[in-house]
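@channel anyone free to eyeball this complex?
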Amino acid sequence: MNPALFLHLMSIESRRLLSYRVDFWITMILTLIVQLVVIWALWTAIFAESGKDIVAGWDLQGILAYGVFVFLTGRVVRGGDLQMAVATEIYDGSLSRYLVYPCNYCFTKYAQQLGNIFPDIFQSVLMALLIIPFMESSSTVDLNLTGILMCLPSIFCAHLLFFMMGLIPQMVAFWADNVWSLSVMMRMVTMLIGGATFPLSLFPDSMQSILYMLPFRYLFEFPTLVLLGKVGFEEWITGIVSCLIWCGFFLLLLIPVWRRGTLRYTGVGI
Amino acid sequence: MIRYLRLYRQFLSFSFSKSLEYRLDFWFRIIMDCIFYVVEIAFFMVIYQHTEILGEWNFDQTLVFVCGFLLVDAIHMTVFSNNLWWLPIYVNKGDLDYYLVRPVSSLFFLSLRDFAANSFLNLVIASGLLGWSLMRYPEPIPTTNLLWYLFLLLNGALLHYTLQMFFLIPVIWLHSNRGLTNAFFSTTKLGERPDKIYPKWTRRILLFVFPLLLMAAIPARVLFEGPSLELVALTLGISAVFFLLMVSFWNFALRHYSSASS
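replying in thread with the prediction:
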C-alpha cells in the first residue's frame, strides 16, 4: 500500500474518533477513575489482610503502578473501537467497496486501527503525567527513560498482535450472521491470561509455565513489565521477536480464512 | 396489569422464535457468558492464592458473592440487555416515535420487548453456579437469610437496569452515548468486588450515590450476617428512590426528544 494513503487513512480515523469529544473524554476519565479505585482498594485490602509485604514479587506500590500502567498501555494495545468493524462490513455488505479498491483490505483496516490509537496515546501520556507525581516509590519497579523508550516498540508490536488475533474471530462473519460474542470472548480471555487484570506471576506456578508459552502475555503484561523496568535488554529483544513470530503465525492462519471467506462472500448485506 | 402480562407473554414467544433464526449466534453467546463466569471465578481463585481473607470474607463467602453477582448479570442479560442495546439506535434513527405512539408505557415496551432467549440458558447456568456455591458453603444457612438473599438479588438486577438507564437516557441530548455506555460497563466493576475492601467514603458513595454495592455485595452480607432491618431497608429504599428518579428522568428526557433522525 502507498505510504501516503496509509497515513491519510490513519489521519481520517484519528479525526473521526475526536469528532465525539464528550464520548472520548468521558470514557477515558471515568474508566481511569474506576480502575484506580478498584486496584487501590483491592490491593490495599490484600496486602493488609494477608500481612505480607511482597506478593508474587511485587510490593503494594509496585503492583499499583502495574495496575495503572497496564490500563494505560492496554488502551493503546486494544486500539480504539474497531473490534467489530470487519465483521460489520462483512455482515452488511459494505466490504464490497473495499474489495474493488486498489489497496489491500487488511492494510486499510490496520491503517484505520493505527489511526485509532493516536488519540489513545495522547490521552494515556496525559493521564500518566497526571498520575506519576502521586505515585509512591516502590522497591520492585523502576520507572525510567530506558524503560519508556523500550516500551514504545513493545506496545506497537502488541497492538499489531492484538489486531491480527482479533481479525480471525471477526472473519467468522463470512459463515455466521452475528459474531460480536466471539470478539467479546477473545477480549475477556486476553484480559485475564494476558495480564491486563493482574501480573501473570500471581498465577500458580504450574499455570504460569503454560501462560508464558501462549501469545497473550505479549499483549498486556510484557509492555507493562518493560515500562516498569522489570525486563532486561536481552529478554526484551526475545520478547519483541516472539511477539512478531506470533503475528506471523496469526497471519498464516488469516490468509486461508480470508481466501475461503471471500469466495463465500455474496455482498448482499442485510 | 393483566394487559401488560399478556403483552410480555407475546414478547417472550416472539423472542424465542427470533433467537432460533441465528443458531450459531445462539451458541456463541452461551459460550461467551460461560467464559465470563469462568473468568470472574478464576480471578478470585488466583487472588485467594495470596490471601486467606478479602474484605472480611473467606473464599467460600466470596464465591457465593461472585455467583450472586453472576446471577444478577445473567438476569440483566436475559431480560434487559438487548433492549438497552437498541435504545440509543432507536433515538438516533428517530424510530423511538413508533414506541411512543403505542397505547402502553413506552418505558415498559422499550425495556422488556426483547427477551434474550439464548441468555436464558445462561441464567440457568448462573443459577446452577449459585446453587453449587451455596451447597459447598461450609456453614448452615438459615432459610430466612436465603430467601432474603434471593429476593435482594432480584432487586439487584432491577437496580442494574435502573443504573444503566441513567447512562443511556442522555443519548436524547448527546446523540452518541458510546462514552457513557463504556463508562457504565467500566463502573460496574466496582460492584464486582467485596464491599468491605473499599474505604469508608468510597463505600458510602457506592451505597448512596451510585449504589453498585446493593446489587450483589449487600445481599451477600444479608445472607451471611442475617437480614437486619437496616441493610434490607437501605437496599430496598435506595433501589426504589433510584427507580422513581429514573422514571422521572425518562419522562423529562422524552419532553426534549426532537424525533429527528441523524
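from a first look: Chain B touches chain A at residues 22, 24-25, 28-29, 31-32, 35-36, 39, 42-43, 46-47, 49-55, 174, 176-180, 182-183, 186-187, 189-190, 193, 196-199, 202 (CB under 8 Å).
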